[in-house]
Design brief:
The structure is a homodimer of 86-residue chains. Chain A has 86 residues and is an all-alpha fold. The first copy, chain A, is built from 3 helices and no strands. In chain A, helix 1 packs antiparallel against helix 2. The radius of gyration of chain A is 16 Å and the shape is flat.
Chain lengths: 86, 86
């Protein structure tokens, strides 16, 4: 994602990229509500792509952030599977 | 994520999981607006975790969906880096 889109993402900036991310989440919701799983699959890809783009813009390593918070156990209860009651 | 949270995510359902995902995107926006990069890193992890949870609930393989739409080139112009003008 960095290689593909970093230059353009940087020009768009944080706010603009966040707006795109929110739009993609909305499109994902619509695809799921319609039960269109082919479209939903593409929207999942888009949400992930925009999340990765946003991480690039603000210079955060998305994969590292995810593995740091969720190292295959729940960050709240420390168990796998999670046993929290929230 | 499936191993960790699938049972609870399934009980929550698609709509409930979508609501959590939107809340996490909002928390990410707040962390970025405050310039709190430590918090932002955790929020990135949360958004990704909820996106993965949602994919599990609707039985979509998030990684496969992403690689299928973005196989290291732009799905619109076919180039890397992307050269679209949108």
């Amino acid at each position: 994602m960095r290689q593909l889109y970093f230059e353009r993402d940087s020009e768009r900036g944080t706010e603009g990229t966040l707006d795109w991310l929110k739009d993609e989440v909305e499109e994902l919701r619509e695809a799921l509500e319609e039960g269109d799983m082919k479209a939903a699959e593409k929207e999942f890809a888009d949400v992930l792509a925009w999340l990765a783009s946003l991480a690039n813009v603000v210079d955060i390593d998305l994969e590292k952030a995810a593995l740091s918070k969720y190292p295959n156990k729940c960050p709240k209860c420390g168990l796998s599977p999670c046993n929290c009651q929230f």
